[in-house]
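Handoff note, outgoing to incoming analyst
You'll be picking up this chain. Sequence as last confirmed:
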Amino acid sequence: MSQVNWDDVDQLPEGGNKTWFDVGVFEVLIDETKRGQNSNGTPYFTFSVIDNVDPDITAPLERIKKYTSDKAVGYTMQFLQSVLVHNAKAEAQKEVAKKYMHSLSDSDNFDIKKLHGAQAWLKVTQSDRENPNGGYYNNYELYAYEPKVETVAPKTATTATDLVFGKTDQVDISEVPFN
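Most recent structure output, in case you need it:
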């Protein structure tokens, strides 16, 4: 498998398209799940998703990862269980999903095919990291349940004077005589 530079929109995964998710929260379907390892050998699950309303809008594999290192495996397994339980139709199926997850000795035993077609939510936020091609990178986070939309106030410059004295009115000092 070749490494794809996702920041180069001319290079697309097999069967991919140029319609990406914009910033926001989207109801999605998990299209594909694979296991992988980063360059440090840290294992992870990677997900591709499609928009639940417009299947032409996608987030390809390698954009969305859930790590299964010793420190992250609990979080990832909880996420996987939440997806399975949320997608179970009847209460009995939810209990079966919980028992299945509790029976696993580690993440290697999880059957990733169980996630295909499962409903989830994708939250796309703008990163603080600048893209050398212009603009900013996006962060992709997958949730089992719809996350609350956060409203973030725009960043404003704060001066030391503002911190000490509070906001001050701008004063035109061009007419103040100085000797």
